[in-house]
User: What shape does this take?
Amino acid sequence: MRGEGGRGKGEGDRSGGSGCAGGAPAWIDVCASGDLVEGGDGVRFEWGAPGEGGRPVPAFVVRFDGRPRAYLNRCAHVAMELDWLPGRFFDDAGLYLVCATHGAMYEPDSGQCVAGPCRGAALAALRCEESGGRVRVAAEPPSGR
Ligand code: FES
Assistant: This one.
């Protein structure tokens, strides 16, 4: 069943700030650093921020080139979730994020679509950081959409 399951779901900790423009963003604690393997399964979570109507939306984080990368789980072609099984975002080689619906391929570091029906478009990128063995994502509007 798509859209359910996966590690990290519902683990959000939205304490630590307002997320309002001009202030420090709130951060969502997503997972332990060790949960993310280079080019491996991602961690799904629910993301929400001011400007999104307060409604949590599906998002995910993966590790690529040694760093966590977070995006809304929303294809740039049609607003469908990307993963073909919960947390499965990468192709077999672990080089591109792939949409399960029509096969769009995205660069994991930039979110740019490099092949498929939405070539030239991009995933909505979320600011994330890794510290103290945890990966967290800013509850502020994404870029790249
Ligand atoms: S919905 Fe992702 S490629 Fe069409």
In short: The chain is about 0% helix and 30% strand.
